[in-house]
Fold these 4 entries.
Entry 1:
Amino acid sequence: MEAQQYIEVLLIEDRFEDAELAIDSLREGGLINQIKLLKDGQEALDYLFAEGSYEDVSPGLPKLIFLDLKLPKVSGMEVLKRLKTSEKHKHVPVVVLTSSKEDIDIEKAYDLGANSYIVKPVDFDNFSNAVRQVGLYWVVLNTSPNS
Amino acid sequence: MLLLMENVYFDVSLYDLFEGGTKSNNLKGSENYLNPIKNNKTMNKQSLTSFCCSVVFFLCLIVFIGWQFDIPFLTNILPGSPATTPLTAFLLVLISVSLLLSTPSISALWLKRLGMVICVTVGLFSLWLLIKYLLGFSPDIESVFYEDAMKLRYPVFQGRPSLRTLISALLISSTIGLSFFYKKKQRVVHVLALVSWIIPWLTLFGYASLNNPFYEFPNASQVGMSPITAICFLLLTIGVFGLDPKHGIINFLKSSPLGNRVVRILLPISVFAPLVFSWLVLYANNRGFFENISVISVDWAFTSLIFIGMVLLAGYFITDRDAKLKESENQYHRLVEDVQDYSIIMLDITGKVVSWNKGAESIKGYKESEIIGQHFSVFYTEEDKQANRPDSLLNEALRNVRVEDEGWRLRKNGNPFWANVVITAIFDQNKKHVGFSKVTRDQTLKKSFQEKIEVSERHFRQFLESAPDAMIIANAEGKIVYSNLQAHKLFGYSKEEFLVNNVEELMPGNFRSNHQKHRSEYMISPKVRMMGTGMELKGLKKDGTEFPIEIALSPIMTEEGLLVSAAIRDITVAKRAHEEIELLNSTLEKRAEEILASNKELEAFSYSVSHDLRAPLRAIAGFSNKLLRKHSDNLDDEGKRVVDVILKNTYRMGQLIDDILMFSRLNRTNISFTPLDLQLLFKEAYQNLIQAENSKRDIEFNVSTLPLIKGDRSTMMQAITNLVSNALKYTRPRQKTVINIGYLEKEGEITIFIKDNGVGFDDRHIDKLFGVFQRLHNDDEFEGTGVGLAIVQRVLHRHLGKIWAEGKIDQGATFYFQIPTI
């Protein structure tokens, strides 16, 4: 079953184009078939806390979460806050991946416990490199208490 | 010695009687002795009379007791001397009663009449007994009291009163009767009383002569007046004197200190000394001391001694009194002479100076010896003398007794002084004119003081006239007492019209009634203050127009009472200006709010730009890239070129968005000031840029030591990076790039420059150099968004600095900036 398949990277992103490009970059880095895309904040919370439509599914915790801040229904900041205040989820590394270069957003994200903050550049090469390297770092090199 | 003491004692008790006291205290009496006129108020005027009558009552009571219990001592006193008969005692009592009733303190008419009836009855009865006696009738009614005892002791007289007693009774009752009828002729009464004094007085002398039956005189009567009767008659006579204290002896005692002293001391001596001496002489004679000497000679000798003593005493009293008068007169003279502030001089009837005091000397400057005998016109000015003023003043003083004058007079040295002069005509006892007194005060100081006050008042008025505000002074009733020119101009009234106005007429009707109330309140607690604070006050011109005013009030204390000065200012113009300012302020506030709102919108806008505009760009770039890399097999060269153009423009668009966001963020972010080393910043920026460019250029980068500044690190770093990047960019075509950074100091101002040897710029367009999106070069030559220098300028402005540039095409460019240093 797909649900039981171990998910290494969770990508929470409402923009399909950005998601596709990010997934392309991650795959180029070697992280194949272990990426799950969630389209809004509510879905992300349902999935991570096994609520709503994910009630009966227990996918386990991912190794890394890419989180966009601008999300429909529940904002990325809200999701970040829920994750980092939950005993079970707080050790999951969360990389904020967003278009915003605003200081206020950066500050707030780190305050809430974000592990990295990456501004999505327009330049594809830069974007691709950033996503690939961060993904590799957190998934492959980093040792987390959960693993 | 003993005698003297008795006299003194008698004095005092007699004196006490006048003082109305029942005091027998010696000491008290002595105190009052010093001041006989004092305590008139407490004096009971008839206390002497009452006292005498009381003693008479007491003696008569003793006589009756003597007869009742047959004790001869009480009726005769001296063995062998005649006794006071009961009838005599009875008559004496009646006379005393009538005397008491005749005193002015008895006001009831019926009592007066009773006294009169008793008096007349006693008089007539005595006359009747006297006639009976003289005509040789035997006594009958005379023995009405104790008839048996009378007949037993006096077989012949059977209680008949002696001839002397009857005469005395007749005299004294006539005297008292007269005092009833002749209230205004007390002198007659006193003369009659002195006559009644004679018989009992001689009788007492008779007793004093011991074996000489003088008291039996006239011998024919064969019986004399008893000593008790004599004493009683004397007391009654004294009582008569006491009836009217305003006349006779009592008057001496009271009204004149000298008369009082003479009578009080000499009268008792003259009464008692001969009595005592004649007793002593006769006593000595009886013992045989004067065998060969005439008793009468001795008696006269003593009497003469007494007279001498009394005359000497009287002389001493008068001299003493004179000396005291003289002393007080001297004191008065010295007082007048020593008065310094007043010139007090005497003139004779022609106006020549006859006396001079120290005050005259100090005021007028003449010494006494120089001026005595001169005419007083020397003190007058020439004009006054010619106008005959001195003589006319004397004449006026003579007519009206007193004349007062003020004017300039001359001192000895010729200096004038302002004098206040009072001349009084002096008359002697016979109303003969003897001269003038002239009292002069030097009022020069007062006069000059007055003049100063007048000058200061004039200044005050000038000051008020020149005041820029309308000034009005009003009294407590609100009546205008003074107004200045500005007030006339402001309200349109003339000065004369103003002075009949009340202040209420200068304000519109609706203010008037309240103002009257406020005015009286102000008068209760006057102080300097603005009128009607918080109220919009209005004035009313003569033509009826109203205008806004401001009024400052201040109280002025004057001789005419409390006045209030009001400074009134027309605030029409000020008010209008104030209204305009308020309008402008409110517009400004609205503007500020609008700006604030638009700032917020801008923020939301730029936030949205940073997210939403870049996302599609990213997609375009990302998918174009994917197309190139993954689908390059399906693209020919032209297709690849087109995708490349799309990519380049996408990046450029991204760069533009980033720059514009940064530029707008500069306005919004707060900057914090810390000390910064500009030299380090330049070096750091250069290193970063060189690393990023990653090319092998020949670059000479010189940066000198630069002053420390206070600034925000991140924005300053941005500005400096932009400047260095600019220099590097436009020197790219050069073989060798030279960039010099340093500073100039001129008149304390520090200017930092960054000079390159690049392509420079066309300085005709220098005004566009720092504009947003303004570029002086083509994109083909030099890439750029046209935001970099705009950011530099904005950063410097936020640091209160400024920037400018110099440059020519192909001759390099120099950027200068100033920024507050530490």
Entry 2:
Amino acid sequence: MKRIVIIGGSAAGMMAAIAAARQNLNAEVTVITQDSMPYRRPAIPALIAGYITRPADAKIFSAGTLAQHNVKLICPAEATNIVPESKIISILSNGKEEKLSYDAMVIATGAYPLIPEISGCDKKGICTFTTYEAAAEIIETAKSANSAVVIGAGFIALEIAEALMHKGLDVYFNVRSRILRKLLEPEVSEFLTKKFEQKGLKMLTGEAISEIGGANSVEYVMHKGKKIDTTLVIMGAGVRPNVALAEKCGIELGTTGAIKVDNFLETSVKDIYVAGDCAESPDLATGRFVYMPVGSVGACAGKIAGANAAGANQKTDGFLRAQADQILGLQIFSIGHSTTTAGELGLKVRVYDLDAPQSAIKNRGADLFDVAKVLTDSDDRIVGAQLVAKKHGSQFAWQLYKAVLETEDRKEFLQRFNSPRMRVAEALVHALKSTVVVETVGAEKALTLADEANRKNTSW
Amino acid sequence: MTKVIMVDIERCLACKSCEIACAVAHSQAKVLEEAIAESPKPRKRVTVEAAGEFGVPIQCRHCEAPLCIEICPTGAIQRQSEESPVVVDKDLCIGCKLCMLICPFGVLQIGPEGRAIIKCDMCLERMEEGQEPACVEACPTKALRLVSLQEVTKPKRMAAAKQLVKEIEMKESKNEGK
């Protein structure tokens, strides 16, 4: 019987466990996690906003699911050491040390929040949000706070800001450069900044917070020489990989500081695989290894790492980063590369504005989406796309996703994207294929309209 | 899928009865009076969208080859068989929102419960009890109907047949007139 040990109980680790169990039905799969139970980390903003009140509401990969796949869970427990030569792992569970032997292993230790170097960072009232314990601290501090400062740049930092606004706090949002710098073009960031300000989020951009002041706990922060009174500061300035355990047993790290992997997600040590926020992952467009701490990428990588640990031979050419979120009433989509991430890899890109295609329905053209961009490489092939819409952005986002995934030629894409006839026909074909239609009358009408428009060559 | 929810947009008044019924059907109490006081608030899975002069109720199409199933990294979105609706397993959903990105119809939403994804499940619980989906039952003008594909195509075939017969009859009467 093959013994597979997984360290880490979040998306990557649990997917690895389930994939390993599916790959090798006789395998003995054990997951070791520090959390008291596996939970959904994107749920933390909902917890802070008060939409849910118990961690159990966000539990994930429940006992039932695990039992179904014959996966054993040891929690809360900490993996303290790995000896790759004799294939033994030491764990600390309830104060007791235990030794387990393994045949293959997946490390999915995740990441820890980065605390930027600001003077006064050790004060009470400074919180992070990657765990429930940290979220509980935010909730407790927020009870007596009138305002909060969120330092960060990503989607989750914005979600936290929204959650705190929902609680009635005055929320200041600090980014050194601009919001979602890694994911969006400057123009899109600027558009969002304006919109968020209208919704009441106070933006502190252009410069980092220079000082967090107060006696023992936070009383104020300084930004651009201005004093802002607050008792709650939230650090959301990104994450760094948890590599201490891997480093200790001699696993090689990559240039990004995360654990180095090959295309089979195996580390430099044989039979030890790695997935999720602690590891590097291959980038789909370039094949180069980058640090991409994104949940969906982690889960995909977990699936491959788990299967390979159980004896499969799955190779990945790379992962496509795709993120979507809804913040303060705006849907934001970012797929593939932005100028920032492309620049880091030395990939030359061009950015194009995307106009809304003419709608099959009258008077709908203008408000289909707010901003959209596509990025192309030197061969004019699409390597990235971004979109902001008030609602139903996904009707375009899926086309953008397809274009980025297949690195479609921009001109071909535009032809498909802009042709009203095509759009209706495509929708029809899709609907017919899905055998679920539906608005027969509407669709026929739309087709006639499209035909007429094509004949007259007018816009509608 | 043996039965589908058919929408006749010419009948829709945009009264949003389907939206309320949907939220109530997915509440804990299943009764409007109690559902409105629940926390987290029950959420609707169908939305009536304004499009030109029409109101169009839009919910999950339960596609034959669903992109959401294809893209879900954890396999949380699944269907039991080809005939059954596409549903989300809350237990596996990590809230990465990729399905929201990929769905051409924009019918997946972030739910209130820890941001797992919610979507139309064709009222599985109700259907098992032999009831119609809540939105269908609630629609006052029968703009939403639960029909088999046969029922969609049959009236069209009949109309085509009638048209054919009518033309033949007209021809014959013309000939007789000569």
Entry 3:
Amino acid sequence: MDFYIQQVLNALQVGSVYALIALGYTMVYGILTMINFAHGDIFMVSSYIAFFFSTLLLSLALDLHPILVLIATMLTAMFGTALLAVVIERLAYKPLRTAPRISAVITALGVGLFLENFMVAFKPVGPAPRFMPSLIPAVNYTIGVVTVSTIQIVIIVVSALVMLLLDAIVRRTMVGMAMRAISSDKFIVPLMGIPVDRIISITFALGASIAAVGGTLYGMAYTLDPYMGIRIGWWAFISAVVGGIGNIRGAMIGAFILGFVEIFTPVFLPSTYRDFVAFSLLLVLLIFRPTGILGRPITQKV
Amino acid sequence: MKTFLRRWWLPLVLLAVFPLTIVLPQTGIINPYIDLVLKYIGINIILTISLNLVNGYMGEFSVGHAGFMAIGAYVASIMTVWVFPRNLGPYIFPLALIAGGIAAGIAGLGIAFPSFRTRGDYLAIVTLAFNMIVKSVLENIEPIGGPRGFMGMDKLSSLTWVFVWVVITIFLARNFVFSKFGRGVFSIREDEIASGLVGVNTRQVKVLTFIFSAFLAGIAGGLFAHQLQFINPRSFTILKSTDMLVMVYLGGIGSLGGSILGATIFTLVMEGLRTVLQLIGISQEWRLVVAPLLLILLMIFRPKGIMGLREFRFLIPHKERPEDLAEYRKKVLATPED
Amino acid sequence: MSLLSISKLTHFFGGLRAVGDFNLELQAGELIAIIGPNGAGKTTVFNLVTGVYRASEGRIIFRGQDLIGKQTHETVSNGIARTFQNIRLFKELTVLDNVRIARFARTGYSPIEALFHLGRFSSEEERTRRESLEYLQIFDLADVAETTSKNLPYGQQRRLEIARALATKPTLLLLDEPAAGMNPAEVERLMELILWVRKEFQVTIMLIEHQMRVVMGITERIKVLNFGETIAEGTPKEIQNNPRVIEAYLGEEVEA
């Protein structure tokens, strides 16, 4: 029993990171009906930004409080990643908004692969795994039957805060309302004076910043490598689909389901089966209920 | 004599090239490197035609075709390394390849069904998931090497064999495309609903196309395995699928000539880059950035590719060429209307 | 027995009722029209009959067979063909190929025979080619057989779409706004064409049309829909003077 409670905690940790990334997929899909296959790799880049910045900052030996370092790193990663996402959107996706769907899909794939291989070839990065310098002392607390590390707490708490913030933005601000309007009907919206291009860019930037929060948090607990985007990005994507792509709450639910899949699969099957389980889940879902848990079926007009 | 030549010049040329594929490498007129590049061009042509059938002609969204290639590669290799005695290798090679193709074809059948109900992006995800699952399954099967891969194949993929299979592929693909099934495929691409409403059995056509396409990819996989003599799951990831996408969209969708062009240009460019990068002292890893970049540029600036939906005359069967059709038309409709 | 018998046909899109309690008894050889303002549900009826949508409620019996639940490609084998409001030709294909595709079900060879050019392939291809050209000739499109259909002028595209539909040898032909975008001269020719088609091919024809000249000029019976409901049915003369019809189109009562 204790074992299971502990694993639930681990699943929450993993799920939190997936959720932060899944939100990016779902927001872009909601607004452009496009799956940004490059998003996982954008997450990967954000981790590296966090890595380089924190290394740089710490090497300056300014003797700053670790929380400050963490916040500075996170903000830098958020900003840098948001910038990257907007550049990608303007250069690669915008020209294809009226093109047939397959062009956008393939371009997104291309962008993702480009980022991956670029990071592998780019000397300062390279394919070898890297560790981010530790920003928070990793102290383990034992509360009753479970052991919790400070890093775990930070990940779960920060993720929760970010998700609440996003929910608030989407529901209560003008920008959020504009985003939701564009999701429902892309054609009417410009006629109502809403700057569609700008809202789309903001959506990308928002999704990327949230992923960057995930990237920073991830870096605190795991190693980085250029191919992490594929592994983690795909799981986050499956989360978004499971929850109902386009639906923000769905993305969060889906992410925690995937978190549980990740943690609990090795309990019953060899751990190498994790990918197989996750992707099979995706396949089954796509065939029988493509709109996911919270999604609504769309009928096509002839 | 003139009409004979006009009809049969292509088969005659191919017949003449055939012995060259045996002689040239053996006598060293073609050095091993050129031999290798030619073989890769051939394998890539088969792969490109395979993917073009589904993405180009039919307008579907397969982005995980490397999965079919992997199945063909592994099955063919298992056949020549485990199932049959070694000394029979060269003789059962075609059988092994076909077995790989059939195995891939069965997987293709599996993918066809989701394509009935899922549209666009969703099908792309299904095929990507398929690619990942194949890779994941292969990594988990210890007897065939798991993540470390499978090796021990003899180098049965001679230039001659590759040439023969390329010719067979083009022949079969051409016959398929210029038949009622090929027309059905095109109509699905143009307008699937209208296609169904004029009597095309879209399900049958989709199933056929996926199976045929997967079969070809499986053959290419088998040829690939018996050239490299070593395969592992990491040879068949999305990166490989992306290479295939580049070749299709570069050469031209819905075109056999385009497929040949795309495969040839892409292979030569990648090989050329290898040399160029070496010369100017940049690491080879930058080559891997080229394909994705090309893909993005293609999608933005020229998504139909060089030969988009057009065809070289010599690849169109005689009766289907516009001039021949016009002549036929005048002959058949010669009776005056009252 | 009626050729086509539709009873209590109702269809919902989510919460919206697109068609409500539509009834029709269509006899062989008739030429009728369904009219009504935009969004009245006319095209939805066509879609329901051809299996594009599966009806929420009601029955559709064609030549004794229940059509509900049948797939779209069975529509053709059942003997129904249709054209579309916004011309859905296979744009990148030639004129000849557009018609040849309509012969898909009647071109009898298997995939293997096609792949290896065996057996019935050559003879069936030849037959299809010849028959398709004959259809083109009937519709005065033979000269452009090898042209890519997207390059045809509008009027010829419409004719091609009708030719393609007829190449499936239907018993019932559904024409969705065939006169859309045509000038008066073309409309005249279209009216002649439709009448001629009915006679030559012995098909029953059901039209959706907005151009009243066509509707009043050649049809024998008219059904009027508004918001999915049938508000009137009768001969052209009856419909012309029906106040409910006038109200539906103009939105208010008009002093007769």
Entry 4:
Amino acid sequence: MKRDKAFELIIKAFTLVSVAILGFIIFFIGAESLPAFRYSGLAGFFTNERWNPIGADPVFSILPMVLATIYVSFLAVAIALPIGVGTAVFLSCIARESARRMLKPFIDLMAGLPSVVFGFMGLMVVVGYFEKHFSMSSGESVLAGGIVLAIMILPYIVSTCDTTMAEIMKSHKKTSDSLGVSKWHMIRYLVLPAAKRSIFAGAVLALARGMGETMAVMMVIGNSPLFPRLLGKCETIPALIALEMGGAPVGSLHYHALFAAGLILIIMRFAVSMAVWQIKKGSDF
Amino acid sequence: MDRRRKYKEIIIWSILSAAITFAVAFFIIGYIMLKGSRTISAEFLLDSPKGFPLGSSGGVYPAIIGSLAFTGVACAVASLLAVSTAVYLKFYCTSRRLYNVIRLVIESTAGMPSIVLGLFGYTLFVLKLGFGVSVLSGGLVLGIMIFPFIEVRVEKRLGEIEQDMLLSSYALGVSRYYTIKRLVLREALADIISSVALAGGFAMGATAPIILTGAVIYAKAPESIMSPAMALSYHLYVLVGEGAPLEYVYGTATVLVMLILAINGAAMLIGRMKRGE
């Protein structure tokens, strides 16, 4: 009986510690970014000026970085979505069971590759290609970031869509076959429409992931805090934090501004995730 | 006729997409392995990086040990806390409201960008708590990162345990502690280990959380958890930035990818063995 109580106590203590730490993170980031918001106001972060954290009169406009983060991640989803959904259709509806079982692990394998490896390959292959064939002085650009990020989020989209589509296939295959409906008709008029919600949820999930990605994107976008253009350099919020944090003296406005940038990124991601939650709530599957 | 063409488009689209996806997957893995395998030798695995720029000769031994150390600390901390939390939520938490609050906190951590976690760890662990740039600080940040990953999987697995078995156990007057220890955790052990290993692979590949908190450009293999360490992922980033000779960059990438593949492979195997496949 004593052991019973002790075990329960330990479990409760560990849970409390976990929840306390995790809850503290959000609170901590909010508190650390407060001085920066107090200095320039919320509007001060979204003016049409340049990010200049160390001047005599520091300016913390992160509008270019916010736009760059959105631009790169939307571009990535736009590239990855049609390919990802197509691959999921192939895996769940067209490939034979044996082929599916052989190919599916490669999707998991790709999802497990570290982001710094994607960044490295992106630099070698994508950026290298741009410099060689597009006569760009530097291939590092929003487009390069979008392509590399697209490759990175592709496995997530495939996984989410494939699971749903395989389920739909399984539950309706017999009925469709006995009615003499062709496979193509079934894909077009049953599987795709029924998986619509799941496709959308997968896309939004991938978008949220892309917005928070640091390494792979940072290594191929050039990192200058400019307003993003497709073939120009840019800097995303995670890249900004990663590059400037080491050099910002603790307690300085610059330091607090980087926390504020982190908070804004969290809010952006949260807004996107809320969308997924709304979809899930109304889901039929 | 028109209809048939529409179907043809779907086939072409899906086959083309699959071809692109798998070509990219094979290309990335194959290309790195192919280029890196030439560099890998006993010397590369067992020597420290040397030369200028750093990594132009020598090997990656301290980075391998450092990566394992970061991953070990992260897994130890996260698995203990995550499994406890999952057990609590599944077996002890009786208030629906409390359950939802805890779930919300866990899910919002899962949605936290890893660089923001690094920022948090840098201020709290490195500066305020005085752990310094160390294996401990970096490992703790990675632990926070993989906590939701493990908790969600373990909780799901605990939920799959047969309700009848639990009820029989309770009905026989077996205490909750004994039921959890002897029935629940034993039944789910393989899957718990598999989840922790998968999370370890995830932690090992992460760079952003340890840039500020634990990884350094050069260090000996760490002697204690309070010393700073090299990590393969960060080393790869540094080599690329410094413009080190490509064969060393590919070699480092290959070692990192192989280690992660080995961990993930082991995780999958453990999960499958239990199910007797």
